TrEMBL record:
Residues 185-232 form the PAS domain. One of its GO terms (molecular function) is protein-glutamate O-methyltransferase activity. This is Two-component system CheB/CheR fusion protein. Residues 318-450 form the GGDEF domain. It comes from the Bacteria. PANTHER family: BIOFILM ARCHITECTURE MAINTENANCE PROTEIN MBAA, DIGUANYLATE CYCLASE DGCP. Its EC number is 2.1.1.80, 3.1.1.61.
Length: 719
């Protein structure tokens, strides 16, 4: 389905057959329906008034146009179809209608169809499809028939009306040389009919004509009829219709002659109201290019129109800015206010952006909560000023139906022509800038530059290696001791992920973990690290007797928030190694609480209730809040290396670390200092009351074999 809500195959068929009318239309439609629903045969037939006989008016037979023919319905699937209104026989039609020998001759085993019923409730035709094998999708076939049955019915009705009327008029002319029309036919006709004599003077109109144009017969009698379009294909014209306003009407004009080589005896003009059909067609066209929710252009339409504009801008040496907006925390708006109100927020924001930046028609909805627009003839400096003003407007005056909160937005910009000469390049670079702005903490604006491009290329480079080689080939664990500062004894060790270089590349854990988080590989990474680290802990305990040593592992917020039964998976891995949750400490950064506080609370409580000790990692480096350590079930607080590195020289760093330790004690948390590189740092931390530490002073991270050797040579507690 496309964004308009219609299957693109529907739109293609409608476009391909729209230029045809009458039997040409029906035959062209049959060919395309056969392809659309994968049928070997498609037939469109008319029924006689007794609904006992049928006449093929159009069809498709295994690559060829069907020939006109008549046949009785008795003992055929068409009889069942005419009776039921719609039916389907899947792989059993020959068994159900053994007397219909044509089915066997045609190797037909399946049959599906629908009845064409006019507004008077009369069954006037059938649409059916025949298959040599099983019907691939009966519901799909029925939906296709339903979609096109109205137009097929209209063409058949028009054909029958014109044929019947022409025959009647010729017969009447032959009898008395005057234009007389059966009032019964005129009154029953659904379309407007006008009759003019050989001098092109209007002689009569039917009630449908009077109703269509809100006019009486007396008002048009004797008027001159333009016959320049006689015997040409139908056209759509707009007519005033009194109180009904203007109507879109399909008209066709035919000349009635007693003999082919004689001048017309009179003229008949048919009027069929196509107003609603044309309106629907216009709406369909609008939906194919615009987002129905906001009234903005779809992205592809926007890009096509922007490319056209950029050609002019390039020729005239003009500038512009491609700007992408993302509404911050839109997921929460959806959750708290509902999708309907969230849609209104997007719509109101889009209209506010369009008006503020005077984007006119060059604005589109490029994502669920993302808006893109093109600003003409503005510099980057002017943009920064405009963004500040727009933020103020959104903060102070933004409103949307049903929404009582406030919003912020993040934006990324790309300059034309500096950052791209085509719409697609500007889109790509603006998206990279937007992504960078989101990573910077949202409610920010970032302009694309080459550093962003290099970061993106670096991201793709790492992802390419991970995709090609796999997590197992590229990532491996190393281990670093966590020691008690008071006794300097080993208490635990942390498993850290490292990049296995095959070509002397240096890729930091921060880089490849971020790639994994953004590409869906983080669960695979986390499971690998947890699986190998717990297996290593089992080996350490079994072979070295270090039963008091615990394992500490980092887990990504993205991994915990993916709602994938992570606690159950971890417990299963531990059980397979003869370990329990009490043997493992889980390190989590505060980003987890920032991204989804409520879900984070539920998951952390579940982990804690199952025995896992939880550590808040890198405390103080982001948006740390005392609410985190008060509300969430943490047992340990890890002091980031950036605070530890200068404590022996910088009084402010010393005071900050002391404050963090005191805060941890207030909440009964064990403190672990990271990045300890000197004995002096270790001694200071011990005096401040820090419980544990890790860092190069004790030893660098080691691979499994080296760390095992190190542990085997380390004195056990009590020795």
């Amino acid at each position: 389905m496309n964004k308009s809500g219609l299957n693109p195959d529907y739109i293609r068929v409608i476009s391909e057959v729209s230029q045809f009318t009458g039997t040409d239309f029906l035959n062209q439609l049959s060919v395309r329906l056969a392809s659309l629903i994968q049928a070997q045969y498609v037939y469109i037939v008319t029924l006689d008034s007794t609904v006992e006989n049928a006449r093929v008016v159009a069809g498709f037979e295994n690559g060829q146009q069907a020939k006109a023919m008549e046949y009785p319905l008795e003992n055929t699937p068409c009889q069942e179809l005419a009776s039921q209104g719609r039916c389907a026989f899947n792989l059993n039609v020959q068994q159900c209608f053994p007397e219909d020998h044509h089915l066997a001759e045609m190797s037909v085993n399946s049959y599906i169809g629908t009845v064409l019923t006019n507004t008077l409730g009369q069954k006037i035709g059938l649409m059916s499809a025949l298959y040599e094998k099983e019907i691939p999708n009966p519901d799909w076939a029925h939906s296709v028939f339903d979609l096109f049955s109205v137009r097929v019915l209209a063409e058949i009705e028009r054909h029958l009306h014109q044929l019947a009327l022409s025959e009647q008029l010729i017969e009447l002319e032959r009898r008395n040389r005057e234009i007389r029309l059966s009032s019964n036919i005129l009154h029953r006709a659904n379309e407007g009919i006008l009759i003019a004599d050989q001098d092109q003077k209007i002689r009569t109109v039917n009630p449908a004509f009077e109703s269509l144009f809100d006019i009486s017969e007396e008002q048009v009698l004797g008027e001159h009829l333009d016959v320049s379009m006689v015997d040409l294909p139908p056209i759509i014209e707009e007519f005033p219709a009194g109180r009904r306003g203007y109507r879109q009407v399909e008209t066709s004009l035919i000349a009635i002659r007693e003999f082919n080589d004689e001048p017309p005896s009179f003229y008949v003009k048919f009027y069929r109201d196509r107003t609603e059909e044309q309106r629907s067609k216009a709406q369909l066209q609008y939906r194919s290019t615009h987002d129905e929710q906001t009234g903005l252009l779809h992205r592809q339409t926007f890009l096509r129109e922007l490319d056209t504009l950029l050609e002019t801008f390039h020729h005239d040496n003009r500038r512009g800015i491609y700007l992408s907006f993302d509404i911050d925390n839109f997921k929460s708006i959806n959750q708290f206010f509902g999708t309907s109100t969230a849609d209104q927020v997007v719509k109101s924001f889009a209209h506010a952006a369009r008006d503020h930046f005077q984007a006119q028609e060059l604005i589109c909805k490029s994502g669920a909560d993302e808006i893109s627009l093109f600003i003409r003839d503005k510099s980057h400096t002017e943009l920064e000023h405009e963004i500040v003003q727009f933020r103020q407007f959104i903060r102070e005056k933004f409103s949307a139906p049903g929404f009582t909160g406030s919003i912020t937005f993040t934006s990324g910009a790309a300059l034309f022509p500096e950052n791209g000469a085509s719409a697609s390049t500007l889109l790509s670079n603006s998206a990279l800038a937007l992504q960078k702005a989101k990573a910077n903490g949202r409610n920010t604006q970032v302009l694309f530059d080459q550093d962003i491009k290099r970061e993106s290329e670096r991201f793709q480079h790492i992802y390419k290696y991970l995709s090609r080689d796999g997590i197992d080939q590229r990532i491996y664990p190393v281990y670093q001791s966590i020691v008690c500062l008071k006794t300097r004894q080993l208490m635990a060790f942390e498993a850290l992920a490292r990049w296995r270089s095959k070509d002397n590349q240096v890729i930091s854990p921060q880089e490849f973990v971020e790639v994994c988080e953004h590409t869906g590989l983080v669960r695979e990474l986390g499971d690998k690290m947890f699986r190998e680290a717990t297996a290593f802990l089992k080996t350490v305990r079994n072979e070295l007797g270090l039963d008091h040593v615990c394992l500490s592992v980092n887990r990504s917020p993205a991994e915990i928030l993916d709602r994938s039964n992570i606690c159950e998976r971890w417990l299963e891995t531990l059980n397979s190694n003869g370990l329990s949750a009490q043997d493992v400490q889980i390190e989590i950064t505060e980003n987890l609480m920032i991204k989804d506080p409520e879900h984070a609370l539920r998951e952390l409580k579940k982990l804690n209730e199952n025995g896992f000790a939880l550590s808040i990692d890198d405390f103080g480096t982001g948006f740390s809040s005392l609410a985190y350590i008060n509300r969430y079930p943490f047992s340990n607080l890890k002091i980031d290396r950036s605070f530890v590195s200068d404590i022996e020289h910088d009084p402010s760093s010393l005071a900050l670390v002391e404050s963090i330790i005191n805060i941890a004690k207030t909440f009964s948390l064990t403190t672990i200092a990271e990045g300890v590189e000197t004995r002096e740092q270790a001694d200071i931390l011990q005096k401040l009351g820090c419980d544990k530490a890790q860092g190069f002073y004790f030893h660098k991270p080691m691979d499994a074999d080296s760390f095992f050797t190190y542990l085997s040579e380390t004195p056990k507690p009590g020795n």
